[in-house]
Structure formats: C-alpha cells, structure tokens
Amino acid sequence: MIRVRFAPSPTGFLHVGGARTALFNWLFVQHARRRGEEAALILRVEDTDKERSTDAFTQVILDGMTWLGLSWDEGPFFQGEGLARHQADAERLVADGKAYADEGAIRFRVTHEEVAWDDAVHARIAFHGKDLEDFVILRADRTPVYNFAVVSDDVHMRVTHVFRGDDHISNTPKQILLYRAFGREPPVFGHVPMILGMDGKKLSKRHGATAVADYQHEGILPQAMVNFLALLGWSPGGDRELFFAIGELIEAFTFDGVQRKAAVFDPKKLEWMNAEHMRALGPARLLGLLGDGLGALPPARAVELIAAVLPRSRTTLDIVRQARQRAGLDPVAQDEKAAAFIAKDPDAYRNGLRLSANGLQDVTDWSAATLEAKLRRIAEASGMKAGAVMQPVRIALTGSTVSEPVNELLVVVGREAALARLRAAASSS
Ligand code: GLU
C-alpha cells in the first residue's frame, strides 16, 4: 500500500511552497487510487520546535488545506507526542552498537562512505566522505533532532514515499542511514524544486503575498490556486493547455512530470488562471462563491450583474466590486485613468453626460440594440465622435475607462438608475 505524508512545521502560515508540497502528495495518492491502488495521505504536524510552534499556526495550516480541498486520510498526528518512541528508538540503536553516548547526547555512528538514492525527481543523488560524519540524534535534554524524529515517525507510520522540498536533500543521506540502522528499506524520496519570485530570488514576503490564506482573501478560487500550484514545478508535457480541472490534474499528475529546475511564481499568471476558472464556472455557480457581497440582491439580478462584469474580472473581489457599483449598492469611485480623463477636459466630460442624459431620456425600449443606435445618433447630431459621448457615460457609471460596451452597461444598470446617475454626474462634476 502507498503511504505518503505531508509534514508541515506549525511555525508559520501555510505558504505557497508548503501548499504545493501538500498538493503533490495529495495528487500522488489520488492518482494511485484512480489506478486501483490503495493509498493514504498522512498529515503529521512537526511541532517539536516548541518555541516557534503554535496551535494557531496548526489551525491555519489545516484550514488552508481544507480550503484547497486537500483532504488527508490519517491524522493530524503531532510529532511531539512521539517523544517516548523517539527516545526508545535512540536507545535501541545504542543497544545495537549503532549509536553511542557522547557528552550526554546520543550520537549516530556513520560507517558508510557513500550514500546514494534514486530520487523521483532528480534521478541519482550521491553523498560521500566528509558530508557523512557521526551526528547527534538525541540531544542532552533527551529531545530528538529533526532527522531522527522524522525517520522514527516515517518508519512508525510505514511511509513508502517522501515528497518534500529540495531544501531537504542534504538531510536525506542521514535519514537513509538511519533507515538502514533500523533494518528498514528507505522509502522512495522525491525532492520538488524550489519556488522563486519573478526576480529569480527565493520566494519570500518581499514578493507580495506568500500565504495561501492571503490569496483566499484576495478573491482567488481554490480550484484556480490548485491548478496554479500544480504547475509550479510540474508540467504535463506536450502542448497541453494550462487549464486543469481537478479531475484532469489527478489523471495527469505523475512524478515524471516534476521538473528539476526551480519554478517561478508569477502572480499575473495566477490571476489569469483564476479568471479562466471563474469563466468556466459561469455566473450562476459563481454566485454561491461570492460570500454575501451581493446578498442584498435577488439571485437573478445578481447573476445578471455577474455575467456583465465577469469578462473583465480577475478575482471574485473584482466581480463583487463592479457588480455592487452597477447595482447602486456602492458609490462609483473613479480610478486614476478615469480621473485623468475628466481632468483633461472637464467641460467636454460634462457636455457628453448632459447630451447623453437628455438624448436617452425618451428611449423606452431600453435594449442594447436601441441604445447603441441612439448613442451614435446623439453624437452625430452634435458633430461629435461616438466615443466623446460613450466614454463619459462609462466613467460616470463605473468610475473606470474600461468596461463592457456602453450600451450593455446601460442595460445592466437599468433605465431609471442610469438616467439619474448620468444627470447627477453631469451637474456635480
Ligand atoms: N517539517 C518539515 C518542514 O516543514 C518537513 C519535513 C519532511 O517533509 O521530511 O520543512
């Protein structure tokens, strides 16, 4: 049976790298199951650093996994609860002559001159000589070092595959030696590549949000985040497009596709992917995922508004903000470009608004086709370009220089509300 584990340290938020490691483990399990194999994902919270570990971080990590849909089959287990076993395992190695007491601590005796393994990502990796010296496994205060606790736990939990970040490669030879000392076959190791920011430096807070929860609060959908994380260091090969529904990821994911070179975290790509997933869901299903931002509206009206703004939204926050403005739930706030447009020629702006408010007043068939024709006639009648009428309308109704076509915008805002807002904007600005 395949048994993998995700082993986060609760010393910080669930960040992008940790979530990606969790996802690869999860995908490996789901893919194996789809092929009819028995497989389990164990969640082990490595809380042995008592000073930096907190229950709050543990909770944030579990919440992040739950949000992403990464369910685990066993656990959460807490490494700290294995202390008695860690100590007993160390004593066993002493009794077998494989470790020895040294100034109160217990030190492992290294007799091998080379340790090598076939990494699931990097192929053969070998360490020799000076990298392999006797090392402490139990400190003088009887607490285990990281490498020892991990092997004791992985043996105890019958872990068959260890997938974790590249930064652990240098730990692996020690861990393999410990497996051998316990008389166990080491698991398959696979070290997934680091994640870099756009500047090629290791991803950190300087690059913006790195905690998964930040993206949740910025209006990224979990399925988009999962799709994006999967492609951080994994590639399906060929010219397969990048949009993956979760079932497609499970089907396609294998460690053959995991890259050796570092992955680059591109926030723009995440937004693009989020937009793709929002469009794939469509307005009606999105409504249920927007929280209560549009809760004040009848559902059919909310869906109509979502449909109007979806093509120009990258996050669910974009949708809510634009839909609320069109519905009149929030006042229109001008963005920089809109403010600059007005400032360039305030009279022309007001004039455009006045002409359109007056001209549209007698339109009773408030449809996109009628409004389009009418707006053009209004402009022509004053010897102006269509844009000189339409752009002020767009800005007055959305606060932005880009939106859906103005005739559609007028329809979605609605006749009375649109006319009232155009008149108000014409006289106030
Ligand atoms: N607790 C370790 C970490 O968060 C993971 C150890 C492992 O996967 O072996 O980096």
Descriptive notes:
The protein has 429 residues and is of the alpha/beta class. It has 18 helices and twelve strands. The chain has helices at 16-34, 55-68, 83-95, 146-156, 172-181, 212-217, 222-230, 246-252, 267-281, 283-287, 299-309, 316-327, 336-344, 346-360, 368-381, 386-398, 406-413, 415-428, and strands at 2-6, 39-45, 74-78, 99-102, 105-108, 114-119, 123-128, 135-138, 161-165, 188-192, 195-196, 263-264. Strands 1-2-3 form a three-stranded parallel sheet. The longest helix has 19 residues, at 16-34. The model has no long low-confidence stretch (mean pLDDT 96). It binds glutamic acid. Glutamic acid (GLU) binds next to loops. Glutamic acid binds next to loops.
Strands, total number: 12
Judging from the principal axes of the Cα atoms, what is the shape?
Answer: elongated
Strand portion: 5-15%
**Uncertain spans, ≥5 residues at pLDDT below 50?**
none
Describe the strand arrangement of the main beta sheet, using strand numbers.
Answer: 1-2-3
Task: Catalogue the ligands.
Answer: glutamic acid
Helix run count: 18
Q: Oligomeric state of the chains?
A: single chain
Series of secondary-structure elements, N-terminal to C-terminal: EHEHEHEEEEEHEHEEHHHEHHHHHHHHHH
Structural class: alpha/beta
